Here is the input.
Amino acid sequence: MKALAVDCAASKITISAKNDDNKATLILDIGPKQSQELLPAIDFVLSKVSLKSSELDYITLCKGPGTFTGLRLAFSAVKAISLAFGTDIYAVPTLDCYAYALKDIKAQVVATIDAKKEQFFATVYKDGNKVMDSKDTSIEEVISNLDKNYPVICAGPDSKLFAGLLRDKCPSLTVSTLVSDYVSSDCLYELAEDMIAKKIEPLKDFEGPEYLRKSEAELALENK
Here is the structure.
């Protein structure tokens, strides 16, 4: 299939295109500059696999949780392509995407994004089954959902940070991080094509990112 995958949920963004067996992936860890580079990056990966936006069978992206700016940016870019060419968009929960590479591992998988202010966006799986839904939460709440006698693998862009804190808070746990050639776009393709095979409806025009935390502007308005 011909597809575009975009993950802008964290500061390190991933943009990938595939044309059947040919694939090009670009990872940019450039902080706030991602707003300037996303559209050129999409054009770049498409060109590397000899694709035009009009030829895409589908687009997939991480729908959140994640950074407000990154998610809005990703949705704006892919919706523009969808609107221009009628391409279906398949939006995948971010943390489920990050945990997906470990779905067949006998372990507890904690997928995380650093949400700052001593909080994390996190979800927990055990042997491929979700035991804690995605939350804006503390490390203590994550620990309360873990089996202390079962190994833990941390996944996601902030897995090393979270694993270090987890070891400090709960030294009895066996904690490791995902070390492989894992790229979130690979999981996005698999999850999106599973949705297509199951005839799950693509993203509707009115649907947007999934936020687990209110923006600073919303909080300020509430506090007035």
